[in-house]
């Protein structure tokens, strides 16, 4: 009984720590895919909501910091980067739908884009929704990849059929995300080109 309680507390503590890593990763330049894979490898599919909530919460804090604390400094930064300025203008013109697409396949690293989006005119509610739903496919795919790897490592306790279906599902998920990302990037490039004219 004591060891069960200890293992449960360790699991919960690990998930809290994982959530903190995702939160901090949204504020600094920490790539999210490897952390998702490690989270899936260590905790399985339960890492998915933790990763999604932690990274969304961090993205909201970065958005608010950019909008209300360091706006003038970030405005000076985007003045030197025309593509970033085009993105801000495109979000102002298109709203949360464009932001959701950028969450799927942004040409700007995730942490930088969190601050960049604070310079747009988008309201906080639509920003949270677009961030949460736009980030879901990638987070799910990479956590799934980690969880499938965990299952493959622990293959003795899993039937061969279940392992094969899990790995096949993982491969298809990563392929689908790759294809969607490529398609979205081409659409974003066209939209940004239109904004630049």
Features:
197 residues; mainly alpha; 9 helices; 84% helix; globular
Strand-pairing-aware structural class: mainly alpha
Low-confidence stretches: none
Give Rg in angstroms.
19 Å
How much beta, percentage-wise? under 5%
Task: Walk me through this protein's architecture.
The protein is mainly alpha-helical and 197 residues long. It has one domain (2-196). 84% of the residues lie in helices and 0% in strands. It is built from nine helices and no strands. The chain has helices spanning 2-27, 32-43, 47-68, 71-79, 82-94, 96-104, 110-117, 124-153, 160-196. The longest helix is centred in the last third of the chain and has 37 residues, at 160-196. The model has no long low-confidence stretch (mean pLDDT 78).
Write the layout of secondary structure elements.
Elements (H helix, E strand, L loop, with lengths): L1 H26 L4 H12 L3 H22 L2 H9 L2 H13 L1 H9 L5 H8 L6 H30 L6 H37 L1
Helix pairs in contact: 1-2, 1-3, 2-3, 2-8, 3-7, 3-8, 5-9, 6-8, 6-9, 8-9
Provide a short characterization of the protein structure.
This protein is mainly α and 197 residues long. It has helices at residues 2-27, 32-43, 47-68, 71-79, 82-94, 96-104, 110-117, 124-153, 160-196.
């Amino acid at each position: 009984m004591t060891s069960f309680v200890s293992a449960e507390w360790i699991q919960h503590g690990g998930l809290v720590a994982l959530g903190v890593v995702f939160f901090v990763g949204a504020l600094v330049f920490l790539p999210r895919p490897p952390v998702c894979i490690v989270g899936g490898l260590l905790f399985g599919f339960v890492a998915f909501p933790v990763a999604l909530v932690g990274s969304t919460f961090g993205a909201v804090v970065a958005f608010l910091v950019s909008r209300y604390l360091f706006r003038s400094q970030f405005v000076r930064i985007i003045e030197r980067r025309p593509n970033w300025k085009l993105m801000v203008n495109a979000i102002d013109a298109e709203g949360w739908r464009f932001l959701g697409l950028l969450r799927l396949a942004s040409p700007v690293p995730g942490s930088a884009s969190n601050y960049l989006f604070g310079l747009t005119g988008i309201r906080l509610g639509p920003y949270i929704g677009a961030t949460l739903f736009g980030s879901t496919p990638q987070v799910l795919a990479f956590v799934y990849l980690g969880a499938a790897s965990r299952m493959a490592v622990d293959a003795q306790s899993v039937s061969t059929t279940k392992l094969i279906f899990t790995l096949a599902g993982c491969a298809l998920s990563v392929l689908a995300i790759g294809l969607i990302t490529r398609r979205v990037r081409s659409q974003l490039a066209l939209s940004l080109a239109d904004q630049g004219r």
